[in-house]
Amino acid sequence: MATFSPPPGTADIFESEAREWREIERVGADVFSRYGYGELRTPVFEYTEVFQRGLGGETEVVQKEMYTFTDRGGRSLTLRPEGTAGVMRALSNTDVMNGVEQRVRYFGPMFRGERPAAGRRRQFHQIGVENVGRCAPLIDAECIAMLYAFLKEIGLGDCSFDINTRGALDDRAPAEQLLRDYFAKHIDCMCDDCKTRLERNIWRILDCKQESCGKIVSEAPDYVDSFSEESRTYFNEVCRALDALKVPYRVNPRLVRGLDYYVHTVFEVTHPALGAQTAVAGGGRYELFLPGEKRPVPGVGFAAGVERLLLCRDALNVKAAVPAGPVAYLIGLGIEARLANLALADELRAAGIPVDLELEERSFKAQLRGANKSGAALAIVRGDSELEKNIAIVKNMADGEQTEISADSIIDYLKQRR
Questions:
Q1: Is residue 297 a contact partner of residue 111, using CB atoms and an 8 Å limit?
Q2: 3-state SS string for 230-271
Q3: Angle (nearest 5°) at CA 400 between 395 and 404
Q4: Which of 82, 201, 410, 411 is 20 to 30 Å from 43 at the Cα level?
């Protein structure tokens, strides 16, 4: 029999794994809703300019990783590589431009043309939040604290939080010049990506993981010193708030995040199960221009990679609860009994009682094997004789003991044994 694998960087998710995904989504919905975040579902593809404008044309995501195609009308469309830009496009249709705060959460697939690896897929999934419309250090701190609470509730309380500041937009030019002057002196000894970043996105050099660049990056000047006093004060207030919230963190002056829209607070979360070089979540404060607007809208948010969260949980042997199997297995001997069992199963399921049953014509022994395989504690047996007498035989699958009950009492009988 021929078998077909999904495309590289994608995966089929069957029930045993999907159960773990549902647990992540369930906990996220629970935790985030406590902080006032409502669900928002956006399309999996947007007009390409949504991401070009939102993420910045010089970012590596836009330059190298987006899946872009043209529709029948000649418009350029892109499968979403991240969640924030699409969320902001959706919020442009609300009164967020008037300073009305919007708190939204999302969950869904994202798409990037990256090299597949452990915890890194071309179709991957994110769970995230955006708090849009207002700007304050304590809002940033609350967002980080919410992420910390979520990670603890899914069993990953020992994550490490790195935070830093990107300063205000007005701080960007002098800081970039400071870094460019320094790295230009060493660029011949750096990797090819960093040589490109020197001209296109100087900030990404600070995030380079190549050993050849590590020492040079570690000795780069402290660009935060070039920020305004207002920006430095903003970041200090974020740190004070995190201390008050008892959220553990460390200030990492090399943390910049990879997207152009970040300002002020940025943060990244790693877990020892995946190693310090692999983030499980990240985010920060940003300013984005909504379609048709001349001034940016402030926001703060984060996204966590679901596949990476699951890798961490698996390494720690943290598992979602396995749902209970069927309470009973209905065995029907003859077409009339199978029809009666089909109707009975419908009634039982409507009453909240999970059951399984045999719908094909099979021998009694074969149906008993099906009952054993289902994991049901009880088998309900009916044939022509039982139908005439309006009774059913209840067989205990553990010890084989059999009990005769009225067919009219099956629902109440099984409710008592759930």
A1: no
A2: HHHHHHHHHHHHHHHCCCCCEECCCCCCCCCCEEEEEEEEEC
A3: 35
A4: 201
**Least confident range of 35-39, 78-82, 132-136, 188-192:** 188-192
Strands 76-79 and 102-111: unpaired
Among candidate residues 163, 130, 160, the one with its CA nearest the CA of residue 236: 163
Q: Has residue 219 got a pLDDT over 70?
A: yes
Contact 403, 379 (CB under 8 A): no
The answer to whether residue 1 scores a pLDDT higher than 60 is no
In one-letter notation, the amino acid at residue 306 is: V
Burial track 204-222 (b if 16+ CB lie within 10 A, e otherwise) = bbbbbeeeebeebbeebee
The rounded Cα 371 to chain-centroid distance in angstroms is 37
The single-letter code of the amino acid at 358 is E
CA nearest to 227, candidates 216, 217, 236: 236
Query: The dihedral of CA 229, 233, 235, 239: what is its sign?
Result: positive
For residues 60 and 51, what is the distance between their CA atoms, to the nearest angstrom? 12
Whether residue 318 is predicted with pLDDT greater than 80 in this model: the reply is yes
Rounded CA separation 226/178 (Å):
8
Confidence of residue 287 (pLDDT cuts 50, 70, 90): confident
Is 388 a residue whose pLDDT tops 70? yes
| Residues 85, 50 contacting (CB under 8 angstroms) | yes
**CA-CA-CA-CA torsion sign (209, 212, 218, 224):** negative
d(CA 58, CA 199): 10
Q: What is the model's pTM?
A: 0.86
Of all residues in the chain, the percent with pLDDT exceeding 70 is: 96
389 is written with which tokens?
């007498």
